[in-house]
Q: What sequence folds into this?
């Protein structure tokens, strides 16, 4: 009778202790199940922080052109097909000022996507942290825009100039220095050295034909978009000379 009561008591205790107790009674230790890590979510305050924008590619064309490259449409075509031929994805636009109509001048300030992310060369080197670096004084970049769409350096000899039509200027009232447009080569359809009268040049006379150029080896000041060492006014060269184009991913 006593033995029966003892076994009944043991069974009751084991039932109360459950599986863990049974394992303990048998001398087995049950390891606790490890906690699952929570997925990382970057937060800003109580709001989700959006992912940073992807970098935008910038290159200088491997080919050079006289000042007669077909105006803004021609320059856009050059950037588009240079990128396609090199296997680059995305939409590319030229760093160039031009007339859309007789009275309307346009350029990067009006037509470019202004990314808050970095701008890089085709070889991956960062040119600028964001678009504002290109349009804000002192216009200093981290490195030169000297790599072509194919990933090699351009301008080995004296072939280092780039048609831009864009230069820093002064706003006298505020003293603030801003980018200004000076469309060259009769809206980039003349390769002079003399420009005939057109809808853009209405003086009725033949004028010297030149356009503003930048220097693809410079980056510490505005000379990447307007070369100061050129003999012609405003860092220009004659339109029968050749130069590259800058192309920016949008």
A:
């Amino acid at each position: 009778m006593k033995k029966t009561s003892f076994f009944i008591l043991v069974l009751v205790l084991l039932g109360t202790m459950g599986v863990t107790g049974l394992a303990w009674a048998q001398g087995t230790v049950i390891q606790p199940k490890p906690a699952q890590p929570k997925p990382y979510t970057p937060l800003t305050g109580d709001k989700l922080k959006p992912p940073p924008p992807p970098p935008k590619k910038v290159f200088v064309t491997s080919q050079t052109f006289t000042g007669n490259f077909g105006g803004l449409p021609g320059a856009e075509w050059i950037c588009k097909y240079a990128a396609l031929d090199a296997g680059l994805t995305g939409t590319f636009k030229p760093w160039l000022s031009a007339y859309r109509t007789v009275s309307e001048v346009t350029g990067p300030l009006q037509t470019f996507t202004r990314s808050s992310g970095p701008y890089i060369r085709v070889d991956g080197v960062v040119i600028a942290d964001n678009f504002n670096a290109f349009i804000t004084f002192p216009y200093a970049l981290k490195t030169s825009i000297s790599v072509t769409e194919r990933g090699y350096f351009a301008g080995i000899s004296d072939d280092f100039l780039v048609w831009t039509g864009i230069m820093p200027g002064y706003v006298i009232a505020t003293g603030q220095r801003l980018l200004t447009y000076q469309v060259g080569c009769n809206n980039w359809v003349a390769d002079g050295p003399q420009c005939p009268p057109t809808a853009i040049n209405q003086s009725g006379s033949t004028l010297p034909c030149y356009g503003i150029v930048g220097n693809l080896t410079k980056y510490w000041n505005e000379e990447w978009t307007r070369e100061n060492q050129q003999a012609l006014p405003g860092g220009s060269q004659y339109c029968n000379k050749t130069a590259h184009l800058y192309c920016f991913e949008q």
